[in-house]
Amino acid sequence: MNRIIIIGGGLSGLISAHLLNDAGMDVMVIEKKAYPFHRVCGEYISSEAIPFLKSLHLFPSEYAPPVITKFQLTSVNGKAAQLPLNSGGFGISRYTFDNFLYKKALGKGVRFLLNTEADQVSFEDNQFKVRAGQSILNADLVIGSFGKRSRLDTTMKRGFIQNRSPYAGVKYHIRTDQPTDLISLHNFKDGYCGISQVEDQKFTLCYLTHRDNLKKYGNIKLMEESVLYKNPFLKSLFQNADFLYDRPEVINEISFANKKRVEKHVIMAGDAAGMIAPLCGNGMAMAMHSGKVLSELVIQFMNGNISREQLENLYRQRWKKLFARRLWVGRQLQHLFGAEWTSNFAVNLMKNVKPVAGYLINQSHGSPF
Ligand SMILES: Cc1cc2nc3c(=O)[nH]c(=O)nc-3n(C[C@H](O)[C@H](O)[C@H](O)COP(=O)(O)OP(=O)(O)OC[C@H]3O[C@@H](n4cnc5c(N)ncnc54)[C@H](O)[C@@H]3O)c2cc1C
Fold first, then answer.
1. What's the rounded Cα separation, in Å, for the pair 200 and 216?
2. Residues 266-279: pLDDT tens digits?
3. Within 13 A of 181's CA, how many CA atoms are on the CB side?
4. In whole angstroms, how far apart are CA 123 and each of 120, 140, 266?
5. C-alpha radius of gyration, the chain, whole number
6. pLDDT at position 333
7. Does the N-terminal peptide bond of residue 36 adopt cis geometry, omega within 30 degrees of 0?
8. How many other C-beta atoms can be found within 10 angstroms of the C-beta atom of residue 247?
9. How much is the pLDDT for 279?
10. Which of 167, 169, 231, 277 is the most exposed place for a label (fewest CB within 10 A)?
């Protein structure tokens, strides 16, 4: 039987695994960690993904994810505005959601190679060879769903990996008294911090900061006290919340650079194909959507209805049509954050020109798929 290897078991990889398995394909997922595990992510999923998840019986209703319908923005110096979110979203931790999708996939017969990092992929005579741990695995098709930055980006010599990126992400789970239906985004110098509720009355507090902030203060706690606390909303939140981990999850080198959708015949999905500015609220929905688009084409290819060249070209075209503009809008919105005057401007826009602010927020979101 023909085999598909999916490298990376985040949302794009897990959704692709479900869809391809449902279509009768032989699928193996290689994941360098073992579920369940925490990830740096704001954990707010825009509601465009709900109909799709429900259609696959993969909406995690048993965790009663909170419904989020309001958005609050505060500026670096603590000015605040609030808007209803047109489409809104729901909150669930990646610890729970990825594990839920993994267990369902395992139950259906998807094979997983966990705690194993793929570090080389080659393509010759219409066949892939994937080096993963001690094994060399053969495949007819490889999906690259290995996220924003992976060792494979280096071994595959992907263009964007040559440039360093100045952003780091930090995440905690906390208990606080923010309303259940609110997602708040608080600016601070050279960064911004999102807070919204997930399952079990926990909240995710996740922020993106420039690495210069970290360099200047030497450690996360001191940086938070010196930089984030200048926003009174963040100061009060940090001082009054109950932090549920000993230390936060941290990642470095978050890049929003343009990436190729197909590289050395590996079809990229999710962040490996291109990442929207975090906390725009839909990187996860886009990861799942790209897994869907890709799987539809892969099924046609594996059934012999389209050639490899057609698969690659059609995927590039569909990806561009669906996501290129949103990534661009996300990058532009990101310019409004992390500085005093631009974040004040954004708050004033939300207060005084609500339709324009609402329009901009909606432009970074997609339609149900
Ligand atoms: C600070 C921050 C906040 C964010 N907040 C939100 C938010 O609130 N809402 C939202 O929708 N999006 C948010 N995002 C974006 C969202 O997290 C991503 O868009 C989404 O996780 C992408 O899914 P993915 O499947 O492409 O990659 P991931 O979920 O990152 O999964 C990639 C997987 O590949 C594995 N892997 C990597 N390399 C290898 C290898 N060589 N071999 C085997 N396995 C490998 C990794 O272990 C990982 O499990 C945020 C991102 C950041 C950085």
1. 36
2. 999 999 999 887 76
3. 9
4. 10, 9, 9
5. 20
6. 76
7. yes
8. 10
9. 60
10. 167
The two three-digit tokens of residue 284, written as one number: 């996860």
For the chain, the residue count is: 369
**CA 222 to CA 1: how far, in whole Å?**
56
Distance 300 CA to ligand 1 centre (A): 27
8 CB near ligand 1 (under 6 Å): yes
Count of alpha carbons within 13 angstroms of residue 117, beta-carbon side:
8
What tokens does 88 get?
A: 């809104």
Element of type H or E holding 6: strand 3-7
Give Cα 257 distance to the centre of its chain.
Answer: 15
Rounded distance between C-alpha atoms, residue 229 and residue 207, angstroms: 13
pLDDT band, residue 153 (cuts 50/70/90) = very high
- Find the 224 Cα to ligand 1 centroid distance in Å: 24
CB of 43 within 6 A of ligand 1: the answer is yes
- Options 3.50.50.60, 3.90.420.10, 3.30.565.10, 3.30.420.10; CATH for 3-363 is 3.50.50.60
**Cβ within 8 Å of residue 275, ≥6 positions away:** 148, 254, 255, 256, 259, 283, 327
**30 within ligand 1 shell (Cβ under 6 A):** yes
Q: Does the beta carbon of 12 lie inside 6 Å of ligand 1?
A: yes
Q: Is the pLDDT of residue 120 over 90?
A: yes
pLDDT in tens, 305-337: 999 999 999 999 999 999 988 888 877 777 777
Q: Which residues 6+ apart lie within 8 Å of 329 measured at CB?
A: 280, 360, 363, 364
pTM surpassing 0.85? yes
Sheet bearing 141-144, strands edge to edge:
111-113, 26-30, 3-7, 141-144, 266-268, 262-263
